Amino acid sequence: MAECHPVGFQWVMEAKRRGATIIHIDPRFTRTSAVSDIHVPIRAGSDIAFLGALVNYIISNDCWFREYVVNYTNASALISEDFQDTEDLDGLFSGWDPEKGQYDPKSWQYRGVEVSPAAGHREMFSGEPRSERGASITAEEHDPTLTDPKCVFQIVKRHYARYTPEVVQQACGIAPDLFLKVARALCDNSGLERTSAFCYAVGWTQHTVGVQFIRTAAIVQLLLGNIGRPGGGIMALRGHSSIQGSTDIPTLYNMLPGYLPMPKASYDTDLEKYIEYNRSASGWWSEFPKYIVSLLKAWYGNNASAVNDYCYNYLPHISGDHSHMVTVAAMADGFVKGYFVLGENPAVGSMNASLQRKGLRKLEWLVVRDFAPTETAEFWRSAPEVVAGDVKPEEIATEVFFFPCAAHTEKDGSFTNTQRLLQWHHKAIEPPGDCRSELHFVYHLGKRLKELYRDSPDSKDHPIRDLAWNYREIGEIQEPDAEEVLAEINGHSLPDEKPLSAYTELNEDGSTACGCWIYCGCRKDGVNQTARRTPKDEQDWVALEWGWAWPANRRMLYNRASADPEGKPWSQRKKYVWWDPEQKKWTGYDNPDCIATRPPEYRPPEGAQGIDTLSGIDPFIMQAEGKGWLYDPSGLLDGPLPTHYEPQESVLKNPLYGQQCNPARLEWVRRDNPYHKAWGDPRYPFIATTYRVTEHHTAGGMSRWLPWLNELQPEMFVEVSPELAGLRGLENGGWATVSTIRGEIEARVLVTERLQPLVVQGQVMHQVGIPYHWSYVGRSTGDAANELTAFVADPNVSIEESKAFSVQIVAGRRASRRRAGAVGPLAAPEPGQEDGGEPSRDLPEVRTKKPATHGERSGRQQQTEEA
Amino acid sequence: MEPHGFFTDTSVCIGCKACEVACKQWNQLPADGAYFSGRSYDNTMHLESTTWRHVAFLERSRQLSGQTTARPFSWLFLSDVCKHCNRAGCLEACPTGALVRTEFASVYLQPDVCNGCGYCVVACPFGVINRREDDGRAWKCTLCYDRQKVGLEPACAKTCPTDSIFFGPVGELQVRAQARLLELHRKGVHEARLYGMTELDQPGTEGLNAFFLLLDRPEAYNLPPEPRVPTKEVGRAWGMMGLAAAGMVAAAIAAVRAGGEK
Amino acid sequence: MAADSSKIPAWPAWRQLANGDPVGLGASAFSPRSRALKARINEADRAVGSVCPYCGVGCGQQVYVKDGKILDIEGDYDSPISRGCLCPKGAATMQLVTGTHRVKTVLYRRPYGTRWEEIPLERALDLVARRVQKTRDDTWEDQHEKGHPLRRTLGIASLGGATLDNEENYLIKKLFSSLGVVQVENQARI
């Protein structure tokens, strides 16, 4: 956190000053470790073993927060009799379909009930679509004593019983006494009077079990009562100024603004079905229809009415996975013709860089917008495979447009930061030359397309013709008015066009328009709330008058949990929001995250519908049942409980299960994306992990062109321990070549004790640290870490695994410029590998699964058939 | 005006180098060039005529008191800067009056007066001041004299995320530093020590207006343990020269006399 | 303590004595420039409230502007998030936005080309709009063979958004969805 979010880290230092214990768990000793109380070096990719052992420690030492767990989580829920755990099936849960390579989650459900997951996750289920309308929490069976062997609490307890300090040593390379020190510190600092927080970044997410890493932390925090309370929580430290915003208003394939799912081709065939499949009977997602109808009104204006399903049929439909890596694989296969790259640099920042570039070579046209031509814009002339002569510019047909972008100081707009806070940045000066904002680019592109399709009678062109696309143009450069766009996002009533002040004002009858329901209120009273800058010294520490946080300017989610079931603060020290019996409403430092007038003693009457089903002790209002999920009966594709699996390319056999890897992971088995052996590949004996350093930013587009930053970290380097340096003859300050079967890179060597070998299962494990900022253009260049990595992903969100894989390292500059993306695998497959021989990633019965099930989706044919 | 300076508390420094960049930005200094040093994360290596804040990185095979690590190791950082000595060698060595003591007690180099003679360079016991190759003049930290004159704190102190660099009246900084030292000692960090806070601590400079809290010996951070400004010796040198001159006069007279007696 | 130059003659020795600065290391040695020195942001026409464009912390920035040019960018003390601080990247923002690395014209690489050519912005926008139209029309999938609607093109994709404004992401999603482009992605998944 000190490395990549130094200013956010000031609050950790502030906490330390006030007596907090800072624990840093990371394969490397970083700038965060330097000022922490405890540093725990961990084998990259083994975090579920560590976190699972914390769960086991908390339960077996009775450190869990009983009143919180019983009232606010699903610990007491009874699970289907058919459920079988990974403990029973050697690493698989019940419901595994080895033919499809997918789980059927039916046996994971609550006894007798199907619980609706949050919207947007439906498309992930295998099997037939189900109407969620019948879902109801009244049918649930509970054991409030938490002793029934089929209750969630007991299932969690059994699932993690084998995750002991000794297993932590076996899987993570962490000594038992160091683990116990962390466990004790965490438990000692959780409870009525104290809370503990987890902070993470992509070191947790970029794994084939990335989502489950976070889930394990959620189990720990729910058991300790650390969610929804000040000083608690699990904080994702996001790496871009508006990466949260680009998820809320998603430039993501599977969602519409406000986490509404994109229509699924074979299910959501009309508005009625779309609502039927996505609305929840209970919890806050019962309000779903209001949000989609208001969105359609914002997009298609007066053209959208009840008669035409509010133009629902103008929306495109997805079928399966259209995420980044799937798209790039399809591009490399020639199915994608045109590509917009807007302020991003996938030729450096995305996995298997040479496959990314292969995709770019197959395009008909490419648009790149950035400050200066990036590696993505210049792939045709200076990429490694071009230098190597394997690819010639004269043979690349792609037409490339590079548009220079305006800086944040040259345009109005809002960023949403890592804590869901929208902050407005005002335009300070005009952009130079032909530099323009993305707002300008998209708006004027849209205007041109509307003109091109103006007279088209074709029904496919109606959405463009009917698109509401009128924004005030400002100044000589005709910049669209960003605040008008914000006003559309905020929403207004119809037909009088008064700004709305909260999402509770939205309707499903077409009388409101709102571009993103969770942002409704950001321009309350017609005032840009995101531009509020009341100085911190003129308000309390929650600072509700600085910017605007979604939803409803609420600074902490689930904050109902900061009070006990009766609505009183758990302790004076940790008070945040509470029930005021005199005023008969919830009050406190923040906007309460519950229905403000609903008393703690409220229990839903028989037959309650929608948000009336949320009781007075339901802090997790986005869940159908209002409870935090220790056990996830339906939301994830790779199991209801996090389970330790090894990375796709590991140095170790899974110490806990016969099943080596996440069985539901996404693989791309293709010549331009070969993999190493599952474990113990003698050609690639070391663990590698990639990361950022303080002095640079992501793929370098905003840092490698700046001399002030380049002088601080001028060259690509790799970090190794003195032991590994000795073993491989690496010299500090010298050169090393790091290779995988996909690519080879050269880098300067930093020999440092900040990396250390770990002893795991009697073997000495070496880790290589690889910053990923550099590549072949800019003012500071070097080989790109992502020349080494592979397309392989978590099944829930299709995030890649870049934080743990296997490599070889040798001394000297020995890299060829050859790449799997241009010439296929750089090493021959090991004997026995071609036929999927040992060692296997999957249990024998899973091996019947066709390889590349998910990868083959990338073809247009298959994608269409998917539906 | 009260003396103002920096208290740099290395025990909370996270080595982010924001101070280095903020200084360059405010003072519009060029980058020194790209040089991969192989010395931890320190690639600017030392204070320069165009690097007025410099973060040193110290990797030790030794535990820091109070910290738990898997093996004996610690990583220390120090943001170095001109010390603005109470007795400043550079100031006293400057023949043109380019170096002056400001109303805030800082040592300020006036670029419009400096003729680049370089006398100051050798007179600094810390190696802080240097000449720029492109314009020949000497340059160093101004303690953001321009900002101080309008009541703004220096750019490095303002940007420092963890308050490792604290700016203020030197008297207040001394109180703060003492309290921090006691706190660290109470927590068992016995290796914490102050560097150059008073004349008593550092007679050779008569105390620094930019002083430090360190977690190791000064030498470990490449700071001289007992710096002495050369001009400290000037008084004695003049005395000796006087004596020598007197001796020579006496000898001459004696010689003349002796000659006269011939 | 700074000398009032109007009342004291300029002769250095006289200044030294008059200022009680006999060794000439203090105020009497001040040049006119030094005496007149002020922080350049004092000259700014205005300070514009902004937000750091790098990571997700969202540190407050103040952008000082004079005559349509940026004089300085520094942290905003009022921000409850950052309290005036910036990290090295944030502190380098001025170089990011005013640096010589910025390209200010549209560049075009023809198919099979070996160099960039400059082209006018308006023409480039026209060309891109026509490319979109053609690719969209060529690759349109209206219906699945089973009869359910698809109404999309898989021939066009978009990547980017995490460094953009919410308003920009909104227009991208709105326009591209209406064009039938579903392969819209950004760094949030990377």
UniProtKB/TrEMBL annotation, chain B:
PROSITE patterns for this protein: 4FE4S_FER_1, 4FE4S_FER_2
Residues binding [4Fe-4S] cluster 4: 94, 114, 117, 120
InterPro entries: 4Fe4S_Fe-S-bd, 4Fe4S_Fe_S_CS, FDH_Electron_Transfer_Unit, Formate_DH_Fe-S_su
Residues reported to bind [4Fe-4S] cluster 1: 13, 16, 19, 160
Biological process, per Gene Ontology: cellular respiration; formate oxidation
Residues given in the record as [4Fe-4S] cluster 2 binding sites: 23, 141, 144, 156
Transmembrane segments: 237-256
PANTHER family linked to this entry: FORMATE DEHYDROGENASE, NITRATE-INDUCIBLE, IRON-SULFUR SUBUNIT
Binding site for [4Fe-4S] cluster 3: 82, 85, 90, 124
Keywords (A to Z) from UniProt: 4Fe-4S, Iron, Iron-sulfur, Membrane, Metal-binding, Repeat, Transmembrane, Transmembrane helix
Compartments reported by the entry: Cell envelope
GO cellular component, one term: cell envelope
GO molecular function terms noted in the UniProt entry: 4 iron, 4 sulfur cluster binding; metal ion binding
Protein name: 4Fe-4S ferredoxin
Domain 4Fe-4S ferredoxin-type: 4-34, 73-104, 105-134
Co-factor(s): [4Fe-4S] cluster
Pfam families tied to this protein: Fer4_11 (PF13247), Fer4_4 (PF12800)
Cofactor note: Binds 4 [4Fe-4S] clusters per subunit.
